[in-house]
# Entry
Amino acid sequence: MSFKVLVCDSVAKKGVEYLKSKGIECVEANGKTEDEIVAMAGEFDAIIVRSATKITPKILSAGVPKLKVVGRAGVGYDNINVEAASENGVVVMNSPFGSTISVAELAIALAFAISRKIHLADAKMKKNVWDKKSFMGNEVNGKTVGIIGGGRIGVETGKRFKAFNTRVLCYDPYYVNKEDRRLMGFEFVDFDTLISQSDIISLHVPKTKETTNMINLEVIKKMKDKVILINCARGGIINEAELLEALNTMPDKFLGVGLDVFENEPPVKWDIVNHEKVCATPHVGASTKEAQQLVAVQICEQIVEALTKNNFVNAVNLDKIKK
# Structure
């Protein structure tokens, strides 16, 4: 039996080559509009996306009954309407492992950039201004780092911070077997303890009802002064309006804030990005050659397993399929 896969966005060639090596026909459709994908969807057994293409209810309903799987080359799947997929009997899968190291490295990089004011110094140097006095920095060495979320990325981030002689606290109420994390030298604490004791706080949780606006003005007030806050997880975990209020009204609260993700991408309002204490990047946590190859190959391997063996690896909605 032959299968046909629609590859949206710019998925690494190595993944597409893997599909073709298994006899699967691939149609690459980077940059297609919703209506264009709707017109095509009924021809395909599976659709693969990164983050640019939104898989809407309209696309999903147009794909059935042939469409069986939508695969996301990466961890987050906010751009896929999972509820509509479940209603139409379409399995949604992600590839959660390939970008782990890349995201962890960006979180570390943002913390160091803020500690040493690298982004601010670079901006002045590019204006031909030599200004040593403004850029007295801070060492990461010896600081207390709080990791919110003890999953793969949180753990890899914490491990890297440990290498810089830091104390690493971790808050994760859903991680039952904490002993292996303790062997890495992490201290598992409650949320308030982490917030009040950490010099650097790095977020590594998915966006859910529980985590939306997890970092708000009330929580910020409990943080130490001169804290560094990093978000390479998902936009919306930090309440941006309240963070901006804190940045503007509590000048001693933050040494700096590193943001790779935002409530709206691109932002509707750029006030927080333009704040002098914010070091911002355009959701590039997984944007390394290594990560993109890994997530592409991983999701393509999963697509083959799903289509040829009915084995849905890393499915996020199997328990909600209604058809």
In short: The longest helix spans residues 289-309.
